[in-house]
Amino acid sequence: MMTIRTAEITDLNALLVLSEQIGRLHFENAPLTFKQPSAADKPFWLSLLNDESTLFLLAESENLVVGFLTATITINDTIPFIVSCPICRVGTIVVDEAHRAAGIGTQLMDACAQWATSQGAAQIRLEVMAFNQSAQQFYQQLGFQDQSHIMCRYLD
């Protein structure tokens, strides 16, 4: 039985295991952008757990944390030519490597969408790395579409 609930401080060590998985994946595929997972990750996740403006959900199966998602709501109030409406921005979503393709990510995203709707958000946005084809396919299956591309050129 899968449970989606709000993450708590007592979940921190389990969240760090998943953070290490996604951190390793990103470092191995984009080492000029991402650092190796380290002890510096712990205070980062702790600060998000304590941030009341951040949605921090976790997926739990048989008392085992198997995934988590973070999101916030932003409203453009500074750029006059961009619409000003609440937008839910997913910061991180990760599912344990041993539990992928079991619907956990979909359940986390569904719970996020429900929360976003309750907050008056008009859309959900997220960024996914170009190397992460499986994540891109997952989001496309959920109805996400490309809206923009972030491009990078490394300087010597």
Automatic annotation (TrEMBL):
<protein>
    <submittedName>
        <fullName>Aminoglycoside N(6')-acetyltransferase type 1</fullName>
        <ecNumber>2.3.1.82</ecNumber>
    </submittedName>
</protein>
<keyword id="KW-0808">Transferase</keyword>
<keyword id="KW-0012">Acyltransferase</keyword>
<dbReference type="Pfam" id="PF00583">
    <property type="entry name" value="Acetyltransf_1"/>
</dbReference>
<dbReference type="InterPro" id="IPR000182">
    <property type="entry name" value="GNAT_dom"/>
</dbReference>
<dbReference type="GO" id="GO:0047663">
    <property type="term" value="F:aminoglycoside 6'-N-acetyltransferase activity"/>
</dbReference>
<dbReference type="InterPro" id="IPR050832">
    <property type="entry name" value="Bact_Acetyltransf"/>
</dbReference>
<feature type="domain" description="N-acetyltransferase">
    <location>
        <begin position="2"/>
        <end position="156"/>
    </location>
</feature>
<dbReference type="InterPro" id="IPR016181">
    <property type="entry name" value="Acyl_CoA_acyltransferase"/>
</dbReference>
